[in-house]
Amino acid sequence: MKPCHYFNRANSSWIFHSLVAPLLFVASACSVGPDYNRPPVTTPANYKEANSATMAGSIDDVIQTKWWEMFGDAELNALEEQVDLSNQNVAQAEARYRQARALVVSARAAFYPTVTLGVGITRAENSPTISPGPVKDTTPFTEHSLPIDVSWEIDVWGRIRRTVESGEANAQASAADLEAAKLSARAQLAQAYFLLRTVDAQKQLLDATVAAYQKSLELTTNRYNSGVVSRGDVLQAETQLKTTQAQAIDTGVQRAQLENAIALLIGKAPADLSIAVAPLKTTPPELPAGVPEEILTRRPDVAAAERLMASANAQIGVAVAAYYPNVSVNTTGGFVSTSAAKWFSWMGRLWSAGLSMTETLFDGGLRGAQVDQARAAYDASVASYRQTVLNGYQEVENNLAAQRILRDEAKVQDAAVKAAQQSLAVTMNQYQAGVVSYLNVIVAQAIALSNQNTAVNILGRRLNASVLLVQALGGGWKTL
User: Fold this and answer.
1) CA distance 252 to 265
2) CA 77 from chain center: how many Å?
3) pLDDT for 16 beyond 70
4) Domains of the chain (ranges plus CATH)?
5) How far, in Å, CA of 465 to CA of 478, rounded?
6) Are β-strands 141-154 and 326-337 bridged in parallel, bridged antiparallel, or unpaired?
7) Whole-number Å distance between alpha carbons of 269 and 275
8) The pTM is what?
């Protein structure tokens, strides 16, 4: 579309601008206001955390459309497939997208004439006080009419074209919002699922620990009955056993809440979903980060912000078009007769046609304020777009760092678990030999349990960081 500029009333004739210029602009498809060009954003060459070859690899080689399948969990796969079908947040976003597309069709309708057809039958009688001549004709009569009206606003200055352009950009933003809603729901589901499996692993660990503590209690009780240890050792062993049993029971609260959250994410009532307890066996995948520039095409929220920016730019043209005359064509035709038999006769035809142009001469600064408002809204959308891109970089960096640091922490923690288990075995042997008191056993058992529980938590956090990194990279979605 060709840009237009304000006409100078002081230097040009009224006739040219009112009659000739609009026809020239119609022929040249003129559109006032700035044409859209995506503003530049600062893009670093690489991520701070992407120092290894695997980090700099291709994202598309790992993160596919069904990215959750990389975790190799069949139950997670089955749950994820239900998000598009039943998640109500996704359903809302899909409905908003259809609404945006309908608004585009509505805006495009302004390109075409509006044709109305009416049928009228009127029974009337003239008043004798207003009938002309000495003979007063007050005979009632019936008028039959069939008017056809055609009105058409000629899009001389591109107001309609800019409105359609804005609507199309909004629809594209809604499409990106729909993808963002899907990605968010799927990521939340994966996070809740892995946290649930982490709780299952903690429950499994606590149950195994309870079984071990039960044997320790039996051993201490036997030693007490033999007079080797005091009653205090038995009470200490029983206290530790009951405390751990309470911890195992307490995990049921969080598990129930997570199961209910998963039900909500797949659009089911909590009563309709039950997930069997299973150990946490998933290994966190190594995910590449690619290059920062890919954020501009991979993240649906960035795409939506960019399309909203294009829509705001088009609205500037809509506001500027108000400075120019409104050109429209209005025609009326049809048939009218006082006789039903001659209703559609050629003699009863009528028609009129006209071209009109209206220009606002004074509005108290309304149009200028509207243009300023549109430009300010565009500037705000530019800032929002750039902030969305920066947020994307931050989220990727955060989760790359979490992925790297937690991987290193897991290695150290695994060594700590082995050392704690060996220390517990040595302390138990010393206790049975009467070298140390039962307090040493309790301390060693508590350390071993704490380290094992920490190892489980680290695995869960690594899986969570992997899901968040996938989400930060836009999942398997790319701007077309």
Assistant:
1) 20
2) 21
3) no
4) 1-32 (no CATH), 34-111+156-324+366-472 (1.20.1600.10), 112-128+138-154+326-358 (2.20.200.10)
5) 21
6) antiparallel
7) 13
8) 0.85
User: What share of residues in the chain are helix, strand, coil (percent, to 5)?
Assistant: 60, 10, 30
Q: Which tokens go with 326?
A: 């409104």
Beta bridge partners of 117: 148
Q: What is the pLDDT of residues 396-431, one digit of tens each?
A: 999 999 999 999 999 999 999 999 999 999 999 999
Rama region for 31: left / alpha / beta (φ>0; ψ in -120 to 50; rest):
beta
pLDDT tier for residue 137 given thresholds of 50, 70 and 90: low
Separation in Å, CA 371 to CA 161, 265, 316, 318: 17, 43, 6, 9
CB 75 within 8 A of CB 282: no
As given in the structure block, the two tokens for residue 157 are 């200055």
Element (H, E) at 336: strand 326-337
* pLDDT confidence of residue 131: 56
Provide the pLDDT for residue 60: 77
Count helices and strands (H / E) in the chain: 11, 7
From the list 468, 458, 414, the residue with the least C-alpha distance to 287 is 468
* Residue in 170, 98, 92 with CA at minimum distance from that of residue 381: 170
Is the pLDDT confidence value at 458 over 60?
yes
The three-class DSSP label of residue 367 is helix
CA 419 to chain centre: 47
- For the segment 108-129, what is each residue's pLDDT rounded down to a tens digit? 999 999 999 988 888 887 777 6
Which is nearest to 191 in space by CA: 199, 88, 143? 199
CA of 469: how far to CAs of 59, 258, 402, in Å? 11, 21, 9
By residue count, the chain amounts to 480
| pLDDT of res. 351 | 86
